[in-house]
Amino acid sequence: MTTHTLETAGADIVYDVHGPLPTDGGRPPLVMIGQPMDAGGFSTLASYFPDRTVVTYDPRGLGRSTRKDGRVDNTPTVQAEDVHAVIEALGAGPVELFGSSGGAVTALALVAAYPNDVSTLVAHEPPLIPVLPDAAAAERARAGVREAYEAKGFGAGMATFIAMTSWQGEYTDDYFAQPAADPAMFGMPSEDDGSRDDPLLSDRSWAISSYHPDIAALSAAPTRVVIAVGEESVGTFTARTSVAAAELLGQQATVFPSHHGGFLGGDYGYQGQPEAFARTLREVLAGQ
Q1: Cis bond leading into 130, ω under 30°?
Q2: Which of 60, 49, 48 is nearest to 84 (CA)?
Q3: Cα angle: 223, vertex 224, 228; to 5 degrees
């Protein structure tokens, strides 16, 4: 693995290249991106592609990538520019791209803006509130996460986030009538460490979940766009956004093993089924 730093006007972007460049066998690089997860979250998944050159990166302001623009918000169109710059620096495009969660949103923005950068995009569970029929209620639920975080800190915010993202179906009155989520029920600390800068629990990443994909641009792009959803995610927030986004693109969401973090090998205390997940990803990239 080699690590590189790409200096742009707004940030110094750090990315890792696992394997040779130029790539072996004429296959393009396989780029893996997340948000707010950085490159470290893809270590297990990348290990199942020893025959491919895999590229991972840290989004600006996260991990090792430092910002110079004076901002703290995470915006998909800005991050798409960063990924575009990395792909240009690789000099081996168009690439194949796997985007997870907020990274899937960034990837959709990338393909809309730079359709020749990516040959195949697998967008796994993008959290796109505007595509939901209950978008206004979902926004209210998202605001509840920030309110809990602002009031009581990380444990309360994360417990509320888990309650929101594991809720089955639309956000009805029953959801909002629930008692406040108890951090202890999810193994979260109840004490407040005083920080309020978490990219997941604050409003710093609201531009990600508020993004409305440019369906016309995505449909016109030469990129094969595949919206993916975990088999264990059925009925949850990111499963519903995935199914709705796929329908807008005239497709059915492609089912992957496990859950929202199905490619993780215990990273962040979140165990998926990485071997099965990688096997499905390989099949989808091959068009099977």
Answers
A1: no
A2: 60
A3: 130
- Nearest alpha carbon to residue 95 among 34, 38, 42, 21: 21
DSSP 92-123: -PSEEEEEETHHHHHHHHHHHH-TTSEEEEEE
- To which residue do tokens 């590229």 refer? 55
Query: What is the tens place of the pLDDT at every residue in 94-132?
Result: 999 999 999 999 999 999 999 999 999 999 999 999 999
Tens of pLDDT, residue by residue over 51-63, are: 999 999 999 999 9
3-state helix, strand, coil in the chain (%, to 5): 40, 15, 40
Instruction: Specify which residues 271 forms β-bridges with.
Output: 265
99, β-bridge pairs: 33, 123
> How many C-beta atoms lie closer than 10 Å to residue 118's C-beta?
26
DSSP secondary structure of 207-224: HHHT----HHHHHHSSSE
